[in-house]
From TrEMBL, chains A, B:
<feature type="DNA-binding region" description="H-T-H motif">
    <location>
        <begin position="34"/>
        <end position="53"/>
    </location>
</feature>
<keyword id="KW-0804">Transcription</keyword>
<dbReference type="GO" id="GO:0003700">
    <property type="term" value="F:DNA-binding transcription factor activity"/>
</dbReference>
<keyword id="KW-0238">DNA-binding</keyword>
<dbReference type="InterPro" id="IPR050109">
    <property type="entry name" value="HTH-type_TetR-like_transc_reg"/>
</dbReference>
<protein>
    <submittedName>
        <fullName>TetR/AcrR family transcriptional regulator</fullName>
    </submittedName>
</protein>
<dbReference type="InterPro" id="IPR001647">
    <property type="entry name" value="HTH_TetR"/>
</dbReference>
<dbReference type="Pfam" id="PF00440">
    <property type="entry name" value="TetR_N"/>
</dbReference>
<dbReference type="GO" id="GO:0000976">
    <property type="term" value="F:transcription cis-regulatory region binding"/>
</dbReference>
<dbReference type="InterPro" id="IPR009057">
    <property type="entry name" value="Homeodomain-like_sf"/>
</dbReference>
<dbReference type="InterPro" id="IPR023772">
    <property type="entry name" value="DNA-bd_HTH_TetR-type_CS"/>
</dbReference>
<feature type="domain" description="HTH tetR-type">
    <location>
        <begin position="11"/>
        <end position="71"/>
    </location>
</feature>
<keyword id="KW-0805">Transcription regulation</keyword>
Length: 202, 202
DNA sequence: CGTTAATGCGAATATCCATTCGCATTCAAT
DNA sequence: ATTGAATGCGAATGGATATTCGCATTAACG
């Protein structure tokens, strides 16, 4: 941020600008989200925008940061540790994922469609991190006997598989139905996570 | 295509332009692939480009079409039907996928990084279709006894999972190692595909 | 050859947007 | 109320790039 807003008026403007960025992206798509439009939507002028954000991408990063915190919060709020059945735990996580993706009137969908030219990596990495942590705890508690060996790899695969299958599903006509998809995804993931480390023939 | 090339000279030019488009994307990235650069690379002028391609995106679509045919061809050339072990079959497919992604000096990587603003859907759908067809044949031949119920859903999940896990892996530093990733992906996919339709408790 | 249609050229044009800058307005402290 | 700092403005600027158009060159055919 180029300058710290000191007065109440300007703090509100910064807030309004980030809000407006989200709104514009959601309503007009990332391509048509211009500085002019953002400013107009926020009810301020373009010039003011540049008082507090070095450039347009700084604005978008601010938006992404806010969203990332949102997701992390929601994830933490799910009481997943208490769920004994692995299948059920995975299923709940996946359903949470779908609900996030559909929230905010398509904002997430538009962001996801444009993941590569956004600081999405930050967000994906963050999610991955959270899932990693969560999995570690979960397996420590529920699978004391044979702790999964290559949890890192497995969580990497599972997170990406689920994320992008969901994305593909949502960003095109859902020919399959969310219910079935969630169920089958859960079966694949839970089945894989529960597999013993190596299948070395005796 | 705006006009059909009638003379040999112009047919070669069209070819050269598509080649040049691929080269530019691969060398300079999609963002810096300008009509000027493409024309220069092809050794023709910008004006000539517009003789045969309505606009820049038409050129890129032509490139994508060519690549799609390439992949389809390679896929057909793999003798997967003969492989009895499901695990092995999946593993070979995945390794083929990696090899495609790495081929053409990073062209595919650049395209993949920018999938959303390209007619990539065409390509992904095509791939999915091919895998669907392939799976149907494979399971018909090898699993006569209980044919997989919801093959559509499973193939959808599996294709997307594998594709995008590979993409994520390749488009960032591979902290994991391709070998391990291919092995684990295979385990997840083969395990899931071989699962019986429903796990209704007796 | 000579004529016509096809092809090729690339400087000039058109468009779109991020970013700036000089001036106007509002705030806060005295 | 006065004043200096903070904030706000938005027309003007600049840069990038897709696309066009009038003229030059080349192929095809008699």
């Amino acid at each position: 941020m180029r300058k710290q807003p000191q007065q109440k008026r300007s703090r509100e403007m910064v807030r309004a600008l980030v809000d407006a960025t989200g709104l514009c992206i959601q309503r007009h798509g990332l391509d048509d989200t211009t500085t002019a439009r953002i400013a107009e939507q926020a009810g301020v002028s373009v010039g003011s925008l540049y008082q507090y954000f070095g450039d347009k991408s700084a604005l978008i990063e601010a938006l992404m940061d806010r969203l990332a915190e949102d997701i992390a919060g929601g994830l933490r709020r799910l009481p997943l540790m208490a769920v004994n059945d692995l299948n059920e735990m995975v299923h709940r996580s996946i359903r949470f994922g779908f609900s996030v993706l559909r929230s905010r009137d398509g904002l997430y969908l538009e962001l996801v469609r444009n993941w590569h030219r956004l600081p999405t990596h930050r967000m994906v990495d963050l999610l991955q991190q959270h899932f990693m942590e969560l999995s570690r705890l979960y397996f420590l508690r529920h699978y004391r006997d044979y702790p999964i060996e290559n949890l890192e790899v497995r969580v990497f695969i599972v997170t990406n598989s689920v994320l992008f299958t969901m994305v593909r599903h949502v960003s095109q006509g859902d020919v399959i139905g969310e219910e079935a998809l969630a169920r089958e995804l859960t079966r694949m993931v839970a089945g894989y996570l529960a597999e013993p480390p190596e299948t070395a023939a005796p």
